[in-house]
Every structure is written in C-alpha cells, then in structure tokens.
Input
Amino acid sequence: MKKRVAKLRGHPLVKKVNSLIRQWDGRLTQDLVLRPGDFGLGKVPARLEPDDTTDMICGFCSTGCSLKIHLKDGQAINLSPTTDYPVNLGMACPKGWEALTPLRAHDRATTPYVRDESGQLKRTDWDTALQIFTLRFKAIQDKFGKESIAWLGTGQICTEELAFLGALAKFGMGIVHGDGNTRQCMATAATAYKQSFGFDAPPYTYKDFEESDVLVFIGSNPCIAHPIMWQRVCRNKHSPEIIVVDPRKTETAMAATQHYAIKPKSDLCLLYGLANMLNQSGWIDRDFIDRHTSGFPTFAAFVAPFTEGLVSEATGLAAAQLRQFAETIHQGKRVSFWWTMGVNQGHEATRTAQAIINLALMTGNIGRPGTGANSITGQCNAMGSRLFSNTTNLLAGHDFLSAEDRAKIARILRIDSNSIPDRNSWAYDQIVEGIANNRIKGLWVVATNSSHSWINQGEFNAIIEKLDFLVVQDMYYTTETAQHADLILPAAGWGEKVGTFINSERRIGLVKKVSRAPGHALSDFNIFKLVAQYWGCGKMFEKWSSPESVFEILKELSRGQPCEITGIRDYKMIDDAGGIQWPLPDACDRILTSDCHLSKEPERAIETERRLFEDGAFYHTDERARFIFEAPGEIPEVTDELYPFILLTGRATSSQWHTQTRTGKSLVLRKLYPSQIYMEINPADADRLGITANQRVRVASRRGRLVATAFITSTVQPGHVFIPMHYAATNELTFPAFDPYSQQPAYKACAVSVSPVER
Ligand SMILES: Nc1nc2c(c(=O)[nH]1)N[C@H]1C(S)=C(S)[C@@H](COP(=O)(O)OP(=O)(O)OC[C@H]3O[C@@H](n4cnc5c(=O)[nH]c(N)nc54)[C@H](O)[C@@H]3O)O[C@H]1N2
Ligand SMILES: Nc1nc2c(c(=O)[nH]1)N[C@H]1C(S)=C(S)[C@@H](COP(=O)(O)OP(=O)(O)OC[C@H]3O[C@@H](n4cnc5c(=O)[nH]c(N)nc54)[C@H](O)[C@@H]3O)O[C@H]1N2
Ligand code: SF4
Ligand SMILES: [Mo]
Output
C-alpha cells in the first residue's frame, strides 16, 4: 500500500490536510452538499411522472441508440430500445439492454475515499474530501508552480460536464495541461479532418449506410464494436459491395463481399496504391477535384511510384486483389469509406486517415447520399469531448493560439481573457512524461481507467506512483486507477444525471436522470460545481447552475462555428425531434424544409438525417479540401527472432466495454464472453509451437508478460496473435509509439513471443 501523504510534509496546507484526516471521526457530515434535489439525491427526475417511460441515449458506444426507460416510483426498473428513434429504429445491442445493471453494482463508490497516513483508503465525507482536494492541489501549485497539476478526462460524461471540467480546470484553477481518453481513440480522426477539411467534422449520417452501393470498412469491426450501425448496413437495399480491410477475418470481414487481410500497418501503402490505380485509369472525378479541392496534381505525382508490385509486396495482397478493389470503387455510384481504430491507432495514423479522405475526394464520393470519408467515433460522447472538453481546442472548436478566439470566449463567459491559456495543453503522453520527469505532481483523473487502458501499462503505473496527489473521480472505487488514488470522488453514472451526448453522426441526444445515485455519489456536474466553490472560483461559474443552463452557454460559444447549435431551443426540442445533428444555426432555413421528420412542433420540423458538404464547400477559408500525404515509414517495433509475432489488440465481443468496470458487473453480459484473458492464434503457428486448444500460453513483449488461454483460429493470420483490450494485462505488452500529428497511441501492433505454459 502506498504512502503519499508524506511527500509534501512540512507544507502548511498539507499539515492542515493531515490534521483534517486525523480529526475526522468517521461520520459523514450532511451539511453543504446533501440537499435532496440539488445534488443527485432528488427523487423524481425533472418533467417525468413517477410511473412513466422516457427516452434517453445509451451511455456506451458512439452509435447513440435511444432507450425507452420504464419507471416505477420515479426509478428506472427496465428498458427497451426506442422504436421511432432515427438511429436505432427499435434495436439495441446487449450492452444497451443491460445498461441499468452496472448502476446497482456492489462496488459503487458511495462516499469519497481518502488515503490516510498508513496508506489505507478510508471513507470520508464530501466536505473533508473537497477540502483535501483543494488544499493539496493548491499546495502543489504553490510549491511547484501552476502547471504542476493536470487532468485526464473522458468521452463518457455529458457535454455540459466536459465543458465544465475544461473551463473550471483551465480558467478557474489555472491548470494548463489537460487531456482525455479521446486521445486514445479519436485524436487521429480529429487531426485528419481539421487539416483536410478545415474543421473536425465527420460528414455523414447513418442513412449513408443504407444508401451506398459500395461500403469500404478500414480497420473497423462494426459487427462487434458498433452492432447497431451494422444493422443499418444490413438494411441497405442496393445489394452493396462490402469491403473490409483488416489483418483479421473479423465478424465484419466474414459478412463482407470482399476481405483484404493486409499486413498490419500497411494501410497507407495500400491506399496510395489505390489512389494511383484510380488516377492512372482515369477513374477520378475531375470536375469535383477542380472545383472543391487543392493539391491534387502533387498528390497524383506523389502516388505514381506506388505501383501494383510495390503495394502488393507491402500489403501481402495479390495484384489481382488490388485491381478488384480499385475497380469496385470505380464501379460504385455511391461509395462510402468508413474507418475506426485499425486506422486511428497507428504510428502514421493521421496520414492514413487522410489517405482515405483523399480517395473520397478524388472520386467525388463526398456530400452525396451514401458517400463520405467517415470516421466512426468510439465512446458515447467522444464527439462532445472533441468539441467541448477545452483540451486540444478551446471550447467549441476554437483555437487557444488565436487572440481573437480567446477574446470571443472570454466575452461570452464574462471572464478575463488572461485566464485563458495562450497555448495548447500537453497531450496525454506528454502529461505522463511530465509526471515521469517531475514537472507534473498532481493529477485529476475523471471517468477513465488509465491504469488499465493506457499503452505500456507497467511503465505508466510505475510513473503515477511519483505523483504527490492523485484524484480519481469514478462510479466505482475498485477500478485499477482508483487503487492508486489518494482521493476517490464518487460519481453518479449514466442514468443518474442529466445532459447531452453527441454521437458519431453529430447527433445531440439527451441523457436523463432515471435512477438515484447510490449513497453520497454526486453527478460529475455537481462535483465540478462544488470544486469551483471550494477552490474559490465559484463566482466565475455562477451561470453554470444546471446542465441546461450550461447548454445555453455552449450554444453561444458555438455561434459562428461549423458546429453551431444556436438553433436548438432547449432540451425539450432535442427530445421532441429525436436528437438533432450539428450544425443547426438559429438562422438555419433548413429547419423549415418540408421534406423532414415531423417534430411535435411542425413549425420547427427538422430533417432527421443531414450530411455535410452537399454544396462542396469545406471549412478552409478557400472552401477547398486539401490533399495531404507523406511517405510511409517503418512499423515502430518490428518482429525478430526473440519476438516473432505481431500482437493485434481491440474489441472482442459486443458485450464487453473497455476496461469492464461497467459491463463486468452484469451477470447476463458475463455469460456472453470468456471470463479470463485469451489469445487468438493461427492453427499453423499453434501446431508449430505445440499449443493445443485452450492451453495456457505465455505471451511476452520487451515490456511485460502475461499468461492467457490459447484460442486456435484461422481468423488471425500466421505470424499474428490477437488479445482483446478488455483484460487488464493486455497493455502490459503494448509498445508506446504515437502518431506524430495526433499523438494517438499505436495500440494495434507490437512484437511478442508466444510459448506454451508447461502442463
Ligand atoms: N462492444 C464494444 N463496443 C465498443 C467498444 C468496446 O469496448 N466494446 N468501444 C468503443 C470505442 S471507444 C471504440 S474507439 C470503438 C472501436 O471500434 P473498432 O475500431 O471497430 O474496434 P477495434 O477492435 O479496436 O479495432 C478494429 C479492427 O482494427 C483491426 N486492425 C488492427 N491493426 C490494423 C491495421 O494495421 N490495419 C487495419 N486496416 N486494421 C487493423 C483489428 O484487427 C480490429 O478488428 O468501439 C466502440 N464500441
Ligand atoms: N491495447 C489497447 N488498449 C486500448 C485500446 C485498444 O484498442 N487496445 N483502445 C483505446 C480506446 S479507443 C479507448 S476509448 C480507451 C478506453 O479506456 P478507458 O476510458 O480507460 O475505459 P473505460 O473502461 O471506459 O473507463 C471509463 C471509466 O469511467 C468510469 N465511468 C463511467 N461513467 C462515468 C461517469 O459518468 N462519471 C465518472 N466520473 N466515471 C464514469 C468507469 O467506471 C471507468 O472506470 O482504451 C484504449 N486502450
Ligand atoms: S450499439 Fe452502442 S449505443 Fe446502441 S445499445 Fe449498443 S452500446 Fe448502446
Ligand atoms: Mo475509443
């Protein structure tokens, strides 16, 4: 058990904290925070009858399905998927059906916990916890400077909460460096779009799944990771060609009409090769290129050396396969390109994503039904965090480096523009490095389980031991990261609070309070409000009184931006409309179009499915999209005699969510996947190594080792193994390489050895 309290011993504020902990007699004080209704203990959710049903967005993946929650006495007792919601049309995956179960888990954090001088985590009350939070972080800032504390946030809390955290931390507490798990997930897509289109804007709507005649999935396994999006593909009436590019024969690859099992991380070469073949054959949309893009001639010259022979060698695909791929794209009238983590999590990920964008641009497959260069997001609110977390961008997609943007935000928020940092935060990996070299001494982790999910976990967990103060704000006190914490703040979860999420197709949906948070757990929103009060910057956030009042502020912040949402009147309008996609400016004439979903207020009827770039105008000042490209590089960790296998990691079943803090709590879901860590290996390799089905195997990399059960399957190629990310040990093996533009970790390839454990 760690003892961190001693680290700042002697500092007057720390003495005060220690005496607070010693004086505390174990009783929970009820003052200040626990007013029913105010802070998470209220009974009946706003605007709901005690026995009623209400629709709200699922809190797992970015599909953003709507679930109908059935209430009894104001508490959720059951749910069923909403039938008339434009996203899921009455469907839900197992996680959605089981979404209420994790709320009732035995290991919910029901009070704050503080680590005492003996190193034990002890229950405490909110007043003590918040005093400790404030005093210790202030003591660290006092001693080591303002920049010595940082936060790591998430794409899994409401947009209003994300914005509150980002504004409170940067403008109220003087924190400069903050990032979140969206870095592990969407940073690449965000960077690629920003550079290519001029703004981080996924262009599509889910209807495009149904309207394409060719769908290309690159590094994406929607059958498992986005099952309801896949259901939309299954509703496609055009007998589409479905192409999957994935080293593994995934469930999606099995359902596809063409599967290209490339060598890991050879995507960039493949995509340049396809661009070259399309260009050489004249299968390009010259008119679109001329009118709406810039840089094509240099791009065409750049891809010329990517001949069939070279690409075939790099990818492991036969020349005939490459030709078939290019021809299929050419023959499609409405081709859509979709990508997910097989692209985003790579050492040259941003350029790979842009190589996909380039294909869509050069063939004019964008802005029309069934087309697009479409990044599928991951977490329920990854899109919200990209726009509003105040980490990589200043709120609402503004720029920290622009004095004009800072002045605009300061004016809207009525704060001094000097309280807005004039530089970008460090990315996640730089924050970790900052801890390693003693520049970051205090860390606040909100709704992410870094000790399990961060790359090269052994090193990460050793590094965070150097912190003087680690605060973890989570629904559960048992997470891997919480075990390292000095202070745990108990958070209400999805279903226990109010706010909005933004899904993959930019649709804003509502989250409601349908269940009471256990014990003294508070919504993240109310925790941030309390932190502001205790820190002494409560006045700055006077107007941030409720999630809906923050939504009003977000609307103003978005004004004039591509993600403008000033046309959304209030939460009720979102509810009535079945979710609303951004942009929706208040001057939007499209609100009144007749070809639209009928909201309950006909004069505000909104088209249910809207895609971007129908007019071919992108967000750069010249309105042209850019062709961006760069020569492919070496895979960061190559296999050798000692570590001869490439390890692939990713999602395993539709019933497992990430680090399993939530899905692991449902008996139903637990029946649907293996409880112990396993590794998939090709029969030829298993045979050669003398590994039999279900045998224990040792998997080692240069960084760590684990023991897993062998699953022998030809879905992985010889020379590869696959281990799901849901088991805590997986990231002990991964190699810490990062894309240079997005700083996203390259989780998907490293070198490992495999050997049978003697029986
Ligand atoms: N059930 C479930 N659903 C989820 C999640 C979950 O934890 N569980 N998480 C959500 C989140 S946050 C995310 S980000 C998404 C992720 O959704 P996906 O990205 O679809 O899922 P992954 O399994 O991580 O990776 C997709 C595929 O990339 C392949 N891949 C690996 N290396 C390469 C390569 O070099 N090239 C190519 N082309 N492919 C490669 C892998 O074999 C894998 O099949 O899922 C979301 N949905
Ligand atoms: N090897 C490997 N590693 C990976 C990946 C991979 O493909 N391979 N994928 C990466 C990707 S794409 C992602 S997105 C990350 C995900 O990594 P994490 O973000 O670490 O995963 P989660 O398990 O979703 O963690 C969310 C935490 O928030 C808590 N929580 C849930 N709801 C709330 C709430 O409302 N409030 C608060 N305060 N807490 C809440 C949960 O209990 C949980 O502890 O993993 C990354 N790691
Ligand atoms: S597909 Fe995603 S949003 Fe829909 S029910 Fe499943 S986890 Fe929830
Ligand atoms: Mo993710």
Observations:
- Residues 1-6, 26-46, 592-604 have pLDDT under 50 and may be disordered.
- The chain has four domains: 31-104, 113-185+382-544, 187-375, 645-756.
